[in-house]
Amino acid sequence: MLFIFGHISRLLSMVKCGGSRFQFCANAAIRPRFLVMEVLIVTVGTTSPMHFFINTLTESAYRSMLFSEADREHVPVRVFDENGKDVTPQPLYQPDPAAVMSKHSKIFASDTSGGTMSDFYSTAYQTTTNASFAGPFTRSVFGSSTVSRGSQSTMESMNEEIEDPSSKRDISISLSDVQVRREEVKELIKEEMLDDVVDRYLIESETLWLLHMPAVSVSVDSEEAVSVKERNNLYMELCKNRMGNDKYVERSMQTFNGAPKTKEVQSEAITMVDAATTWDMYDSFRSAGLGEAALSPDTDKASVPEIVSNHRLDPTRAPERTMSPFVVPSEDEPDPELVLQSEKFQQDLFVMERIILENIYQPKLAAYRQLPTLEVMLHIECLITYKQPCLLDVPDPDSVPKVVPTVVSRREESSLDEESTLTPALERLWSFSCELTSGHNVSSMAWNKRNPDLLAVGYGQFDFKDQKSGLICCWSLKNPTWPERVFTCESGVTTLDFSASNASQLAVGMHDGSIATYNVESREKTPVIDSSDCAHKHTSPVWQVRWIDHERGASGEDKGETLISVSADGRISKWFLRKGLDCIDLMKLKRTRNEKAKKQVGDKEKKSEALISRQAPGLCFDFHPTDSNIYLAGTEEGHIHKCSCSYNEQFLETYIAHKGPLYRITWSPFCSDVFLSCSSDWTIQLWRQDLFTPVLGFTSTQSAVYDVMWSPKWATVFGAVNEGRVEIWDLGASILDPTIVSLASPGVKLTSLLFATETDCILVGDSDGQVGVYQLKNLTVGEGTQVR
Amino acid sequence: IATFLGRKLQPRPQNEVEETLKRIQGQKGVQGIIIVNAEGIPIKTTLDNSSTVQYAGLIHQLVMKARSTVRDIDPQNDLTFLRVRSKKNEIMIAPDKDYFLIVIQNPSD
């Protein structure tokens, strides 16, 4: 109100000085909020004679207006001039109460007047006036958004001034404490008025006087003039002195602040869970869409946070209530024992074991799989940094392998040097053994045809004495410490072979003459089928079984794989399934002395001995690699018979050279005319199919050669194992001496040999139950496939 | 695992779990095995109590984060194995919805 006072006093001074209308107008221009008042003045005081009249009239008028303002009565103000004419200034616009129904005006009225909105007229009446006078209040009430606009509001016209707040009202969202009421009002109106077209009228309302302190002017000539002048002067002095006067001191008041009180609240730990993750939404969507089946264990596993969020969101997902009975059981604490015995856990253990072993055996396996570079770098880096071999998977790119001479004569460095300076050697990588197998004699080994990492090893004694129960272990390359499968057999296993057509079928021949097939996929310990019920089963140890794939089925049977076996009772039998395992004899190995005598005229050996049996024990056989009708069979007498499946009475050929039982015959995989045979007469003979004498014979030591095998990779290389050593022969290099010789551990006899098909490794089985894996190093072999 | 052994698993004898655990424990460099249930409480361990609790709590959070990461990228995917290799050892974790299998190995032992 202060500035109203100030304005009025200024106006008064203007009046007193006899300011012209212009000055009024000037004032009007500067203080637009009082425009109404000044308009009144101007309107009234158009002529100078009215000047005086202003004083009196306006005084009374003001007073009356003030009163009207004070008691809030809206007595219409009437102004009369000297002539008694009613010169009451009419409002510029007569508000139509019915028309103005804008909610904003109502709201505004309720806001500022504090609830005296009695009727439409009054509200309308108040609207514009409130706007004009409550301009400053408007601004303070409505916050900063209006302030800036208000301060820059144009001062040109009243209408604009009035418009501004109303428009501001439109825009601003009030912060006052009648927010609630306004909203209620808003609500009411909204529901009623939603569809109506609301007309907004901007009107100029009557000026409402909130405070009016009229200035009293005294004529210069009157009696009071002197005292009034004095008082005025005093007042002016006072105003001047106000600045530094002690009487007028800026003083601030402090409001009472309640004493702050700290209060501690304890709550449970708030767990923050990212509920809106992509997978969570996916899971929720799936479980909602698919129903109970979606949560079955063999589909997506629900993770623990998902369960948590499930239940947090439960109130919001009422349709998913059907899921909760299924979710709840999974929430229950699974019995620890149950966890441990679950299938998944065992599988995890299995995988974990393999991974651990991979960590341990990583260099060896890498070497096996012929990844030398990585290992070389690693090894050298290890030697440099740690001064000892260690296992790291990540090669350090900084340590470029250089030729570093080390004490350890390991193969890693050898590959860096020129190969010609190093001798070929056998590098022992690891061995398959466990406590189950220790003490058993390795009798045969076979790779799985489909999975080159799977190895089946049969354990059994060769001699008829010391017969223990036989053992078959299936080892995987990924776990050299424990076999994947262990099968126990009644008698010693002498031979085994994996089927090519059914890769999990393993045929086993045993020392008691029985043949069985196992399914290595299953965990059953019993054979799939056994020959013990067969009427024609072998009565003597089965020395070799082989799955042979016939191109033309013999005796009209369908093509397929059949199991052929040879046993010491002199029969080569072909087994098939017909209501149980049954066999027919392909060949009976007869003693050939008589036959040979018949064939070769002039043979000096015409001794006929008293024969215990007419049949010669067969020890080994091998089918021709390309012609599956032809096979070679070796007997205990040392003869090799070439036979055909079509003739089961006669041999096609006989090769005689060995003086002792033949332990192995094998065709060369590269040269189809050539085969090797080894026997206990310390020799290995190399034959050609059409020559009756061996082409080459190899003798190195004076011990029986138990096994011989061609290398699957090199045409001129074969390996042989005799009692004390492993020999690798390279016919391209030397035909007199083996190229590589590796001695067995003392006390252990080496009994079987197997080449690895894809890598440069050999497996050697010994009488202690160990199958050692060796890598062939530096074997430079020519590419020729011809022996000669 | 080779495809050869990717068959349906038959029920195994109960003691095989114990045997396998023993074998793992006896492997070179294995420092400890911890089996933790879904809540994070260890149910079987070969380490001392304080280490076990520490490992269990920390690894639980790590696995949750890892699993969340994998599944955020592709919700149909899921975490099957986690290996953390450090200077001194390697921690291998096989997570499942009911348990975690944690093995700590020092390969250069």
Automatic annotation (TrEMBL), chain A:
Region Disordered, annotated ranges: 315-334
GO cellular component labels: axonemal dynein complex; dynein axonemal particle
Pfam families xrefs: WD40
Tree of life domain: Eukaryota
Domain Ig-like: 401-474
Entry GO MF terms: dynein heavy chain binding; dynein light chain binding
InterPro entries: Dynein_IC (IPR050687), Ig-like_dom (IPR007110), WD40/YVTN_repeat-like_dom_sf (IPR015943), WD40_repeat_dom_sf (IPR036322), WD40_rpt (IPR001680)
Any coiled-coil regions, as ranges: none
Cellular location(s): Cytoplasm, Cytoskeleton, Flagellum axoneme; Dynein axonemal particle
WD repeat ranges, renumbered to this chain: 655-687
PROSITE patterns with a match to the protein in the record: IG_LIKE (PS50835), WD_REPEATS_2 (PS50082)
Sorted UniProt keywords: Cell projection, Cilium, Cytoplasm, Cytoskeleton, Flagellum, Repeat, WD repeat
Gene Ontology biological-process entries: cilium movement
Protein name in UniProt: Dynein axonemal intermediate chain 4
Organism per entry: Oncorhynchus tshawytscha (Chinook salmon)
From TrEMBL, chain B:
Coarse class of the protein's main subcellular location: cytoplasm
Annotated function: Acts as one of several non-catalytic accessory components of the cytoplasmic dynein 1 complex that are thought to be involved in linking dynein to cargos and to adapter proteins that regulate dynein function. Cytoplasmic dynein 1 acts as a motor for the intracellular retrograde motility of vesicles and organelles along microtubules.
Keywords assigned by UniProt, alphabetized: Cytoplasm, Cytoskeleton, Dynein, Microtubule, Motor protein, Transport
Residue intervals passing through the bilayer: none
GO MF term (any one): dynein intermediate chain binding
InterPro entries on file: DYNLRB1/2, Roadblock/LAMTOR2_dom
Protein name per its UniProtKB record: Dynein light chain roadblock
Highest classification ranks of the organism: Eukaryota, Metazoa, Chordata, Craniata, Vertebrata
